[in-house]
């Protein structure tokens, strides 16, 4: 359970699985690495989301916030829910096979 | 996350009469499998005799807005939970075998085990076995779309009844199975006399190797599986795991129903590779290995697709990796059409 938003987190998304699965974890041990990965992920996501006029913001190391230019915003927990939420806001799914998106990415 | 503390599950699928029960009956007599719990969906002609045997009636809960793979098998959920109770009370077991009906789609089983809040911490799917009748295999593939699905999801295919099949017919079936799922291990078994190890997963390496042995491109002339295609990549540079995860999760969100299988061994710049294994929308928790298996350090990735053009996958991956600043060098591209 997330203490900030009350969301019940039942699933660790496969992109969040850490390489080190040692049974003992010291509090705050991998905090920097984790945060670095999250910021890197946010930057990469924004590169793609920009074509759909959406922005993603990393929020306090616990959630992401997805916004559109009209001011709609949604709390997103991981990449699994990001694409789902983006589809909800846009009305269609972001498809990496979309030739139009690929062309835009190539021209950049 | 760590599978050491979880109970492995082996899923056995296959057409009606393809030898699932015969295989299990022989296997369960072996002393190594004494502590194995078995869940069956139907009692076939050949009865199973085992002290930890349970029967369920297939009930699938259709989740709201879910696709065909993302459905919960409530019967299995209940059965596995009661097995868990049993395990903690008295009867200890160290493996579960689920025998499905001939018509069952294995994807909801994987979905149930991987997403259920309780089950995901106590069980993991180690191996999916599909039995294929060598004598009638081609006919089954042609007539049963379920079998096609079972073959794409399988980690191992057990080719049965090879003793009563002419060699050229057997070769035909093997060739067809290789076209549908290039990354699968095909094992011939007569009368269910198989090694116990058959129900365990071998490391993903051999199966990935075997798909690269088949360099010669095959043209699929059979009309019945012409919409199933596969594409495999080999890279020699490490991929950016974050960028790759971004791409694959978006791809699966938009096209998951038509991506029958993703399998790969990926170099992401860590000490060991990541083993990736996915079925439609469902991705097994990626396994970060501590070291590379013997041989050279190369990433392999294979997609089995339905309807989607393999070229578009290649183009998309290339564009995304370029764009996200982690260029990769493609060594090989195999397409089985």
Automatic annotation (TrEMBL), chain A:
<protein>
    <submittedName>
        <fullName>Uncharacterized protein</fullName>
    </submittedName>
</protein>
From TrEMBL, chain B:
<dbReference type="InterPro" id="IPR051316">
    <property type="entry name" value="Zinc-reg_GTPase_activator"/>
</dbReference>
<dbReference type="InterPro" id="IPR036627">
    <property type="entry name" value="CobW-likC_sf"/>
</dbReference>
<keyword id="KW-0143">Chaperone</keyword>
<dbReference type="InterPro" id="IPR003495">
    <property type="entry name" value="CobW/HypB/UreG_nucleotide-bd"/>
</dbReference>
<keyword id="KW-0547">Nucleotide-binding</keyword>
<protein>
    <submittedName>
        <fullName>GTP-binding protein</fullName>
    </submittedName>
</protein>
<dbReference type="GO" id="GO:0016787">
    <property type="term" value="F:hydrolase activity"/>
</dbReference>
<dbReference type="Pfam" id="PF07683">
    <property type="entry name" value="CobW_C"/>
</dbReference>
<feature type="domain" description="CobW C-terminal">
    <location>
        <begin position="228"/>
        <end position="321"/>
    </location>
</feature>
<keyword id="KW-0378">Hydrolase</keyword>
<dbReference type="GO" id="GO:0000166">
    <property type="term" value="F:nucleotide binding"/>
</dbReference>
<dbReference type="InterPro" id="IPR011629">
    <property type="entry name" value="CobW-like_C"/>
</dbReference>
<dbReference type="Pfam" id="PF02492">
    <property type="entry name" value="cobW"/>
</dbReference>
<dbReference type="GO" id="GO:0005737">
    <property type="term" value="C:cytoplasm"/>
</dbReference>
<comment type="similarity">
    <text>Belongs to the SIMIBI class G3E GTPase family. ZNG1 subfamily.</text>
</comment>
<dbReference type="InterPro" id="IPR027417">
    <property type="entry name" value="P-loop_NTPase"/>
</dbReference>
